[in-house]
Amino acid sequence: MTEPLTPQPRLIPITRDTHDVDIELAYATGHNLTGKPIYRHAHCLLLEPAEAALRTAIAIARESGLKLRIFDAYRPPQAQQVLWDFLPDPTYIADLKRGSNHSRGAAVDLTLIDMTGAPLDMGTGFDAMTIESEHFHPGLPQPVQRNRLMLLGVMHAAGFTHIRSEWWHYELPGALALPLIDNADSGPLRLM
């Protein structure tokens, strides 16, 4: 008797048109910590529950006259390997034994922008793997602290949680219990 196939979790495409967000997938460009593209195509995908929570975050941000800019969402495990090979530091890159919540489709990296498209000052850039990127790093200017708290409030109100080391990273609570999703066959990855 053969085991029934377990269906692959459903990843939902996130686009400017369907979600009213700005998308700048850093790993499809050289504007990331590795300095080179990791993804072949700029596909922005999230697991269904994460996509639903993102829609809530979009609506909350809109009420404040802001929009979300997404830097990364679903990340194939092979791309996670590229990042780990570049920076094997579990403070910033999920250890491959544990797996990344990005590779579960349950995490998103993002910031807030105003309606002209200008990003709010968060004190560091996306992918700045430094202590200053911590959510509550002391000594940052008050406007930066306020902007980080605003993003935190939007994302927490939508049902996401944060990690300490990266102001831009949000994920569904309990995401580690979800399976890793290997969607590399769909072509969003260039192994470097």
From TrEMBL:
Known cofactor(s): Zn(2+)
Keywords: Cell wall biogenesis/degradation, Dipeptidase, Hydrolase, Metal-binding, Metalloprotease, Protease, Zinc
GO BP term, example: cell wall organization
HAMAP family hit by this protein: A_A_dipeptidase
A Pfam entry, by short name: Peptidase_M15
Cofactor binding, per record: Binds 1 zinc ion per subunit.
E.C. no: 3.4.13.22
Protein name: D-alanyl-D-alanine dipeptidase
Site feature Transition state stabilizer, where: 75
Catalytic reaction equation(s): D-alanyl-D-alanine + H2O = 2 D-alanine
Catalytic residues identified in the record: 166
Function, in words: Catalyzes hydrolysis of the D-alanyl-D-alanine dipeptide.
Similarity comment: family membership: Belongs to the peptidase M15D family.
EC primary class: hydrolase
Domain of life per record: Bacteria
GO molecular function: D-Ala-D-Ala dipeptidase activity; metallopeptidase activity; zinc ion binding
Binding site for Zn(2+): 102, 109, 169
